[in-house]
Amino acid sequence: MEEVSTPVRDRPKRWDLPFSMDFGNEAEQREMSLTQLNDLFSRKPFSEMDSSRFPASLPLESIVANDTRIRLYREGDTIVRQGDYGNSAFLILEGDCRAIIEGLDPSMLGRQSGQSKSLLKSVTGLFTNALAPEVRDSRLYPQHHEAPVFDPSGTVFVQDVPNILELSPNVYSEAKHNVIPEGSLFGELAALGRVQRSVTVVAAGPGTTTLLEIRWQGLRDLMKFDSALRDHINQLFRQNGLQGAFQTSPLIQAINLDEEQWDQLLAEAEFETFGSYDWHGTYQELRQRDGDLLTQEPVVQEEGHYPNGLLIVRAGFARMSRRHGAGEYTLGYLGKGDVHGIKELMHNVSSDDQSPIQTTLRAAGYTDVVRVPTRTFEQVIYPAIMKTWPDGNFPEKFLGERMERQKTAASPRRLSRRGDHRKEEFSGAPMMEFLAENRYINGTATMLIDLDRCTRCDDCVQACASGHNNNPRFIRHGETHDHYMIANACMHCADPVCMIGCPTGAIHRSEGGGEVVINDVTCIGCGTCANSCPYENIRLVNVRDKSQDDALMVDANKGKAVVKATKCDLCVEHHGGPACVRACPHDALTRADMSDLLGLSEWLNR
Amino acid sequence: MKFRMRRLLFLAALLLAFLILTPYAIGYQIAFSDVVFTSGWLLFAIVLFLSSYNVRKKLTYPPLLKSSTWLQIHIYLGAASLVLFLFHTGGKIPAGNLDIALYTLFSLMVASGFFGLYLTRTIPATLSSRGNEVIFERIPMFRRQVKDRVEQIILQSVEESDSSILAEYYESYLMYFLSGPRNILGHLVRSERTSSRLRHELRGADRYLDARDKELASELLDLIKLKDDLDFHYARQGLLKLWLFFHIPMTLVLLMFLVAHIVLIYAFTGGAS
Question: Which residues are registered as beta bridge partners of A92?
Answer without folding.
Answer: A211
